[in-house]
# Entry
Amino acid sequence: MESYNHSNGSGVFIQIGSGAGDLDTRAHCRDGFTEFVKQLPLERIRKIILVEPNPFNIPLLKECWKDYPESTIYPIAIVPSGYNEKTIDFYYCPMDAPHYQVASVKKTHIEKHYGDGCPLHQISVPVNHLERFIRETTTEEIELLALDIEGLDAEILMDTEWSQVNVKYLSFEHLHLGESRENVLEHLRHHRYAYLGSGVDHNGYDYLYINQCYTP
# Structure
């Protein structure tokens, strides 16, 4: 995040795929987005919007952000705009307990990590589309949008008309873009987003892009 301007922004932050925040012991109690926001002066923070579809993570996520009344948690899954049902099946592998870091709406994403022999469990979770969700939760400039949507990163990035959402900085996991990687990056360039370097993930798994409307 070296290229991020820490002194200037709207103070509105959104994380899609919040997990257990900085209370996941399997991640050594580290989460890049959480660490980034919490190191900011309190007066710089106006709104924190957190999306986490896994109900097992919600209690710890609430604990993580209990000292930030500006934060709101939405227990939903973000899906492509072509999906029109109100809920979707959300899968997890018991071997991935207790925080189910690779739980996903896509079975193949979990099988990639645990093999196709893992006995998947499923629950039904409510859904929303990214553009619609943003419109429903804020009309302000979004200073930072962080995406980690297990197995759906490429689809959501490609599905979004970035000119229709007011996002200054975009940080997203690049590990699972697969064959869609170049298409995703071209889609962002088409919408005038420029690559800056590593994003919020503390492992270096994120790319950081900036909306060129905000560059000199």
User: Anything to note?
Assistant: The first strand starts at residue 12 and ends at 16. The helical segments are 32-38, 58-64, 107-114, 130-137, 153-159, 181-190. The chain has a mean pLDDT of 94.
